[in-house]
UniProtKB/TrEMBL annotation, chains A, B:
Its EC number is 1.1.1.3. The keyword Nucleotide-binding does not apply. This is Homoserine dehydrogenase. SUPFAM superfamilies: Glyceraldehyde-3-phosphate dehydrogenase-like, C-terminal domain, NAD(P)-binding Rossmann-fold domains. InterPro entries: Asp/hSer_DH_NAD-bd (IPR005106), HDH_cat (IPR001342), HDH_CS (IPR019811), NAD(P)-bd_dom_sf (IPR036291).
Length: 391, 391
């Protein structure tokens, strides 16, 4: 058992909670040596000697073994994390954007410097999904992984479906409660959950996918007509991130999806996240917990620090084994609901159309389309057209 | 990566499923060499050369690295497993009774012979709870673990609450569907989930508890009055196994418990199992999946075989760290509902009584009692008295 000396970047609620839990824990034999913050003048709960505003007081400090990176800015985080690793320090990070965008470089940095980078908190906060993919599903038995990876949109959708409020009202409430950012684009357009999907895709199948190569479609165009459609059919709407393997092809996307009421995913409300895994013997398993917030994030960061005490590293067994084997594929058929009010979607884009409905309130079709066609269609960007996956 | 040679005891559905998945998997580099069965004359799906009815054809076979034990009889299983380990073979087992009753001997056998014994399938089948306790919750941050660990009783309770059938009718249906044994005692009296609780107690806190030392109380006395009580209050009833740490004391029991409708445990129906963990930062996490049946059991056995390919062993870190630190304690207060029709419970056993209700249909009280007093009370065994935990 090591006695790890930690240097922390960022001292918000997560950092402060970490400090208190480490004080109380006997088994996580670690102590905070130095904390790098932006504003040295802000009042702090610890004595001033802990704090610095100079990165190098941590990164060049030989008395620090592990850097815990808890800042927002992905590019600044990447510079901190890569410098730390090049200086022989292991790293714990919660920065999904940074991890998803720099996956290959981060792998090389770990290997070159023989250090460990853990980032359990980056995906679904308190849910230990990365560790389970690395350790328990460390073979080729996994066939699919899907779930609700974003608390803000899940809160918004839960409220919208409950009824009585418009999208804009619900979004404002989410922002007031701190569940959504003042610029909600990353959440509501499905970009934040896509970062997580890219990370999980890698740990599930060993496939490195750039966020730009994975399709995302958000929830901002969902209206009353769509919600009525769901309710009349015993469905609800969730923003689902999904990856699935068929042979050597893998499909991956993040799209709003109709989910039967009563299923476990339908019961994942508000800030909760859920991950459903399908593996050999085709039985599904669920991991469920809070997917955002200081405490859930803190608990994952703590578990990573605890693991570093035992010299834990991700082994990336699947990458080694599957090198070059799998590829992202956009040739999968998807069953879609498309609602349109003004202009129509191009019906020729569809493999087949099972239903068409027209009324004064709105029109919809239900049909099958290749992901590639959907992604490249012009009509998808039309503000009066919305689409939702229908399984 | 090894190429493991497997010897299997028992060739029911789990064994047969294993054979087929191993044939298809590229990453679980293992093959079945020999299978020991009771009845050589029964028709089998594989060629006769695979089969033997002599234990030693597997146990003394130097061409076999790993014994997979899939038989029912706990004592016969213990002899097989201990002989295998003494002969330098690693073992995968799904036998909860055998593991729970022989925990310390099994630890010694692993250490003495430098072999690995894995038994993920013994607790909640497909839910990877042991691995998560060993690897992710490998520190002192866990404060409690509770859940639904028995599919038969969960099926019976789901049906009973749905209404329209008596306990005996529902039990018979469960037996007809294969969800309950012809002698249902182990399930309905809470003994089977108690075995699992003992195993999880060990992996959660490092405490070895004999099944006899953990209190269990079943579901066979639940009647319409109890169900009405639940329904009127927005509650359902689940057979909950629970362990919780407070300082160096640990309480552990398996008892029917009122659960608010809408909570995740209330939504765990039929053959599903669920485990809720509470850890530092007091956030709760849930693992959910099928807890019984051939396929869920097979998936856990497969994951153990896959792990043996990477020389995985349980490290039992918490046992080493907490040696002699924790003890089972029966001095915790429990809030109970006690329903009585004929004779009364001894009111003096209670620390306090908040409510008493009397009617022609039945009487109940709600009060607080120490587990020790409850366990030793005479009235608890009275067939006209039933008790359910009320949190």
């Amino acid at each position: 058992m090591k006695n790890l000396k930690l240097g922390i970047f960022g001292f918000g609620c997560v950092g402060q909670g970490l400090y208190h839990v480490l004080q109380q824990s006997n088994s996580i034999n670690s102590e905070i040596v130095k904390i790098c913050i932006k504003d040295l003048n802000k009042p702090r709960s610890l004595e001033a000697a802990y704090f610095t505003d100079k990165k190098d007081d941590l990164l060049q400090n030989e008395g620090i073994d592990v850097i815990v990176e808890l800042i927002d800015d992905a590019e600044a985080a990447f510079e901190i994390v890569s410098t730390a690793m090049n200086n022989g320090k292991s790293v714990v990070s919660a920065n999904k954007k940074m991890i998803a965008e720099h996956l290959e470089e981060l792998l090389e940095l770990q290997e070159k410097n023989n250090v460990s980078l853990l980032y359990e908190a980056s995906c679904c906060a308190s849910i230990p999904i990365i560790r389970n993919l690395e350790e328990y599903y460390d073979n080729d038995l996994l066939s699919s992984l899907e779930g609700i990876f974003n608390g803000s949109t899940n809160f918004i959708l839960s409220k919208l479906i409950a009824g009585g409020q418009t999208y804009d009202e619900v979004l404002k409430e989410a922002q007031d409660l701190g569940f959504a950012e003042s610029d909600p684009t990353l959440d509501v357009e499905g970009i934040d959950p896509k970062y997580k999907l890219c990370i999980l895709l890698f740990h599930a199948f060993g496939l490195v996918a750039k966020p730009d190569d994975v399709f995302n479609y958000g929830i901002s165009k969902i209206n009353d007509f769509d919600i009525d459609y769901a309710k009349k059919r015993g469905l609800t709407i969730k923003l689902i991130s999904k990856c699935r393997r068929e042979g050597d092809k893998i499909e991956a996307y993040c799209l709003p999806t109709f989910i039967p009421i009563g299923s476990v995913l339908s019961q994942t409300s508000n800030e909760y996240n859920a991950v459903v895994l399908e593996s050999a013997f085709s039985e599904s398993q669920l991991l469920y917990g809070k997917g955002a917030g200081d405490k859930p994030t803190g608990s994952a960061v703590l578990s990573d620090i605890s693991a570093l005490n035992h010299d834990y590293k991700y082994e990336y067994k699947k990458k080694a084994k599957n090198e070059g084997k799998f590829e992202l594929c956009e040739n999968f058929d998807m069953r879609l609901y498309v609602r349109y009010n003004g202009s129509s979607p191009d019906f020729n884009d569809f493999e087949s159309i099972e239903e068409k409905y027209q009324s004064d309130r709105g029109n919809f079709l239900v049909g099958t389309i290749k992901l590639k066609k959907l992604k490249n269609s012009r009509w998808l960007k039309d503000s009066t057209i919305n689409t939702i996956v229908l399984n």
